[in-house]
């Protein structure tokens, strides 16, 4: 079993991952494939945008958050996501930004229908090197329970 289980996690726990260095080529390559807006793939056009330069698209920022969840320390034994709420991206991400993830456990409860899992409600915060939030949301996830705990659930 990989990572911390439901029984190992407490409300208030914080887990971190990163940094992830965002590159100009990553921003352009992602935008070319998934968000082909001129201001995301052309530096000259980006210079005339409201951001005054190249910035990462929202889906790339979200993808970096997902990538960093696999690098959390300590790792959690995630089984699956149940949904995201209140997703905000209040600040742009630029080439050379260094992004760090912080995950905070807000709530936990045992699954009523499946004894082998629990449910966590988490606050996700992705910040750049200036500690500015670039992504924040609430997420509900399924997390494995320890095999010896299933019988008591």
TrEMBL record:
Top-rank taxon, per record: Bacteria
PANTHER family hit by this protein: BETA-METHYLMALYL-COA DEHYDRATASE, MONOAMINE OXIDASE-RELATED
Name this polypeptide is given: Acyl dehydratase
Organism: Bradyrhizobium archetypum
């Amino acid at each position: 079993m990989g990572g911390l289980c439901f029984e190992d996690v407490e409300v208030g726990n914080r887990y971190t991952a990163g940094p992830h260095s965002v590159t100009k080529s990553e921003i352009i390559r992602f935008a070319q494939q998934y968000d082909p807006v001129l201001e995301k793939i052309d530096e000259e056009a980006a210079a005339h945008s409201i951001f005054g330069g190249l910035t990462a698209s929202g889906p790339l920022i979200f993808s970096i958050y997902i990538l960093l969840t696999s690098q959390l320390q300590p790792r959690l034994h995630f089984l699956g996501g149940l949904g995201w709420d209140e997703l905000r991206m209040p600040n742009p991400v630029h080439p050379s930004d260094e992004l760090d993830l912080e995950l905070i456990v807000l709530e936990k409860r045992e699954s009523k229908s499946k004894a082998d899992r629990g449910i966590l409600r988490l606050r996700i915060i992705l910040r750049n090197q200036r500690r500015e939030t670039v992504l924040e949301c609430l997420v509900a996830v399924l997390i494995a329970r320890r095999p010896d705990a299933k019988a008591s659930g």
